Amino acid sequence: MIQLVPFIALILLGSGLAIAYVIGGSAVLAFWSTGNERYLAILPQQIFSKIDVFALMAMPLFILAGEFMNRGGVTKALINLSMALVGRLRGGLGHVNILTSVFFAGISGSAVADAAALSNTLVPAMKERGYSLTYASAITAASSIIGPIVPPSIILIFYGALMGTSVTSLFLAGIIPGLILAAALIAVNAVFAWKEDHPKVSKGEAPPFAATLLHSLPALLLPVIILGGIVFGWTTPTEAAAIAVFAALGAGWFYEGLKWASILEGLRRTAMLSGSIFIIICAVSALGYLGAIERIPEAISDIVAALGLGPAGYMLVLNVVFLIAGMVLDIPVALALLVPLLAPVALAHGADPVHLGIVLCFNLCIGLVSPPLGGCLLVVSTVTGVNYWRLARSVIPFVVVQIAVLILLIEVPALSLFLPRAFGFVGGG
Fold first, then answer.
1. pTM of the model as a whole
2. What's the confidence (pLDDT) of residue 429?
C-alpha cells in the first residue's frame, strides 16, 4: 500500500493542486498505509509545535521589509552607488549588476525579489549599451542567488527553525560565502567582458562617487542596523526584523515617498508569501512526524554505515541529492522535506550545524538558476522576454562557477565558521 502513495502524490501534483496540499494529503495516506493511523490524533499538536518557533516570527517581517524597500526606490540608489564604484571598468554594467545584488542581499534576503527588480532596471540598461539581452538576463539570474546567502536571509531563518540552530550564527556565517560568490561571478563577467568586448560606462554616465555615496547612506545603513543589533546582542533576529520594517518605511519615504498603495500591496504580498511558507511547514511536519515514528533518519544512518561512506562520502551524496532537489523543488519545500531526514545523519558524522546550514542553503540556491524549474530563471525570462531554454544555456558558465564555490565551502568549513567564531558564536552558537 505504501508504494502507491508516491504515485498518488504525482497524480495530485499533475492535477494542479497546490504542493502543500499534495504533501499533506500524501502524509495522511502514508500514516494509514503504514498502520500508524492512531498517531493522527496527535498530528495537530505536532504541526503546531513546528510553527510555534520564535525565530520564524522574523521571516514575515524581513519579507515585509524587502517589499517596502523594493517599492521605495532603494534599488535605484544601490544601482547608482554600484555604478559609481565599478561602472567605469570593462564590462562595467555586468559588475554593477553583481555588486547591486550584494547590496540588495543585505536588505531583502530574497533571490526572486532581486531577480525581478534588476530585470526591470539593469537588463534594459545593459541592452541599450551593447550587451546581448540573453547575457544581461543570464548574469542577472546568476547574481540574484547572492540574496539568500548574505544576511538577512529568509531561508537561513527557516533552516535555523527546522534544526534549532542559532540564526545569528547562520547570518554571520553567510557573509564570507556570499562575498566569495560575488567575487567569483565578477571574475566570470570580467572574462566575458574581455572575450566579447563589453563596453565601459563613460565618465559622464557614471554618477559622482561622493554625492552618490551620501545619497545611498540610508540604504547602506539598513543592513548595518539589521545585522549590528543581532551580532552585538542588542536585539534578537525577530526584533531586528521589526526595526528593519520601520527603517524600510523611512528609506522608502526618503527616496521616493512610499505611497499608501505601495504599502498595502507590500502587506498583501507579505501575507501571501508568509502564508504559503507556513502552510508548507505544516504539511511537511506531518511527513517529518511519520519519519520520526518510522525511525527513518536512523535507517538512513544504518545504510550509510553499511555502505562505508564515512563523513566525506555522505557529505558528497547529500549535496548531490540537494542539487537535484533544488532543480525541481522550491527551497522551503526542499528544506522542510529533506533537512529533518538527512541533516541529522551528517551531524552524527561530526558536521557543524552552522556550516551544514550554509552549505545546504547555498546548494539549494543554485537550483534557482538551474533548469527545469529554476525560480529565478523563470522570473527573469518572464520579465525580459528571453526564451527560457536559451537563458538556461547562457547561465551554465555561472552555474559551473557557483558549484565550484560550493565545493570550496564544503572543503573549507573555516570560510563559513570564521565570523561566528570571531564573535563568540562557536559552532551552532
1. 0.80
2. 40
Those residues whose C-beta lies under 8 Å from the C-beta of residue 359, and which sit 6 or more positions away, are 315, 319, 406, 409, 410, 416
- Of 278, 262, 282, 216, the C-alpha closest to 64 is 262
Q: How confident is the model at residue 72 (pLDDT cuts 50, 70, 90)?
A: confident
Residues 6+ apart with CB under 8 A from 266: 64, 67, 68, 70, 71
164: number of Cβ within 10 Å:
10
For cell 562557477, name the residue.
401
292 φ, ψ (degrees, to nearest 5): -70, -40
Cα 242 off chain centre by: 20
